[in-house]
Model the fold of this input.
Amino acid sequence: MTLLIAPITMQELEREQISTGKTAHALIRTAGEACANAISAHFPALRRVLICAGPGNNGADALVAAEFLLQKMVSVTIVTWHRPLADSWLTNARAAGADYIENWDAQAIKTLLPHVDVVIDGLFGIGLNRAPEGALADLITTLNSRHCRLPLIAIDIPSGCNAADGSIPGVCLRADLTLSTGPRKHGLYLLPTLAMTGTIVELDIGISIPPYDRRATLLLDEHTVSSLLPVRPADSYKGTYGIVCVWAGSVAYPGAAQLACLATARTGAGIVSLAGAQSSFEHCWSTPEVTLTPFHDDPLEALVQSHFSTYLIGPGIGRSADAATLLVDFLSSPDVAGRPVVLDADALTLLARIPDWQQVIAALPCVLTPHYGELRRLAGGQCADLPPIALAQHYAKTWGQVIVMKGSVTVVASPDGRTALWAHPNPVLAVAGSGDVLAGIIAGLIAQHADLYAAACAGVAVHGLAGSHVGHTIGNVGVLASDLTTALPHVLQSLYALR
Done:
């Protein structure tokens, strides 16, 4: 299980360690030694390194690493930026035998690069909040021009990247390996920083965070997700796995209904029923396994039937006044109170137009699946100024519902503070109808009695894994959302096999 934390949480954990008797000096020594050991393990034939050390603790970690590398008979050359010559960490490294270049420029660094085996980046750590300028920017640009066979190792995060939100305000280093001292930071797994980290390795420096700590964000992977999938007992029948009512599609958007229903069914829901105007069925139906719930004269009566255990509302229903009225009537109906609802696509846009919409859905356990634009509309036109993970956490708590904040990297947040991240960007998923498939997967898992947060986490991962499978078997270009639904049984079977 991999847990991620915000930079501010790392600072809190460090203070907690110091309150127990450890000193800041000891923490830096431990981190520097762990970095040196990891570097030696990854490059056992290492002979010569260039260490670039900045003014903060990140630079201190790098300078301590220099001492330990020297003990391993590695030749070390150090350049610093804004670190005083009298600094004790630098003094110790020089006393241990490191070469120090006091006055350097970009050309001097460029000349030095062919004579080292590895570059170690200790310029800026998790506290960076501005774009590198001047000599620092020149140094970063020069290091990025290195030969492709010269690896660069970043301590904590590549310099120039923001550890809180993954942004890159200016130039940044392109690392081949990133050594996270202690728990990994949010920004490492958010774009565009995710593309700059290379391989990420977490180092044990005596600072950790337990999974139950709400400050921790779960990094979703196959093994974690396999444990979230609902049980499928041998003595089950179709009713065991729920009855999902999918209100989706219209004459203008028939495919949304097909994709949402097919994904719901292929995820394992017992029965899937498409609800809508009878006039639209001929445009949007071709799957015989799915039943139909025509609206006839009373659409609300059709929707609130007691045998429906789960709802998926929104894909392709349009944004008409009639759809808006029916949505409000449905969400406000006491007949559906307590039943789980996945709200997606057009339903979110219509919901955002309702004054105090949070109160309208207060009696319903919901999963909301907005992309950033839909989230902004739900927030009244402007989102809170927060990093992505904190943003999802904020609105999940404020609105009291599970949020799936969709993007190349997707955040899942629960009102109780649980948070998870799917950090596998994939252009295969950047296709019309992909979101309809995701909503169907989540609804299908909820119908099988998965907790809403667990269903959202597993749904996002299953959707992403389906994209990976399709990318490997078909390719990254020309993929259709319907190809994702075809991949679902294979992905689910692979995940169940890990249990």
Summary: The radius of gyration is 26 Å.
